[in-house]
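Feature request, filed as a ticket because there's no other form

It would be nice if the structure record came with a short human-readable summary line next to the tokens. Right now we just get the raw output. Example of a typical job, pasted below so the devs can see what we mean:
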Amino acid sequence: MTVTITRLRRHLFELVDRASRGEPIIIVRNGAEVARLLPAGHSDWRGRMTTTPRVRVADDEAFRPLDDWDPHA
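Raw output as currently delivered:
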């Protein structure tokens, strides 16, 4: 659901209830999105930040000296 800031101020408690049930509320100002109201715990960004990256090259290839490297290029 997309709402203006004016509507958000008028219906804040109703919109918070809707967001807490899982409905994302997109807040717009002058037609541009400025914020989102989401339920607590909806985004697990910390969980995504702790994933172990996958190495795509072998260790000896990733850490070998660069013979053709020019520091002035």
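Something like this underneath would help us a lot:
The first strand starts at residue 2 and ends at 4.
The mean pLDDT is 83.
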